[in-house]
Design a protein that fits this description.
It is a single chain. This protein has 307 residues and is of the alpha/beta class. The structure holds 3,4-dihydroxybenzoic acid. 3,4-dihydroxybenzoic acid binds next to loops. 3,4-dihydroxybenzoic acid (DHB) binds next to loops.
Amino acid sequence: DLSVTIAGVKFPTCFMNASGALCVTREELITLGRSRAGAIVTKSMTLEPRVGNPEPRYYGFTGGSINSMGLPNLGYRAYAEMIPELTRFGKPVIASIAGLCEDDFLTMARAINQARPDLIEVNLSCPNIPGKPQIAYDPVDSERLLKRVRPLITVPMGVKLPPYFDPAHHAVMAEVIRRCGVDYLNLINSVGNGLVVDPKHETPVIKPKGGFGGLGGSLIKPVALANVRAFWKLLEGRIPIIGTGGVVQGVDAFEHVLCGASAVQVGTALVEEGVAVFERLERELTAELAMRGKQSLEECRGKLKEL
Ligand code: DHB
């Protein structure tokens, strides 16, 4: 049994799509609903529909992926309208919101809350809008935004953060999260602004932003695990964490759980393999737990042994 409960919401399995992967259109969201995914996570939505950045804007390679999608999405009204039908698949619906300014977050929080998804995730970490820094790299902006959005949301509220690379940054953001009534964290968004070069053509592999884009896949797993572990410790295991980053095999999920994750999300591996990835990951994680004589994920959560 790989089911888990996060902020009082039961997930039939601990594996779900990472926002951005296979979750823009109604068809894609329904495909997730019919799959073994433990939840349906929407693409981060904006106030208005967006076509996103020019293509090519995603590239998969050995060990990972790079993308600069630029928030292509149907706009929040379309997702608000779809939420009632998506909730009928018997798994939680997580609505991800990503404003281009603070007021957009407030408008969307009100409307999406009224549509009653199971959880709302406030994405403070989109790295791909030309000229816009990630909100989550400014703790003052992050705290102001979260304190304004919190009272508008009556379902559990999560926050998606980018990776941080210094313990002082983890400490400052953990205090922000503690003060803002956050019900769960999703760690991490893509590792922002990498550059993958195609030496044959002497070019970047994606077009937007001169080739700069968010990194995902196996290569970011150590960064994801470090962030899950750092926030788990700083928040004393009191705020549940969805671990995202480098979940490609069952054992990757096990590692996230040891670091403190309650559930995990799958981005690059889902884009590369399609929804069949969920069955494989369930089988692999179940075997991993059985091999170690573990009865449940809960028994492993946060139990990384230090040397
Ligand atoms: C996009 C990428 C992100 O990492 C994110 O959090 C939101 C949107 C994008 O490029 O579409």
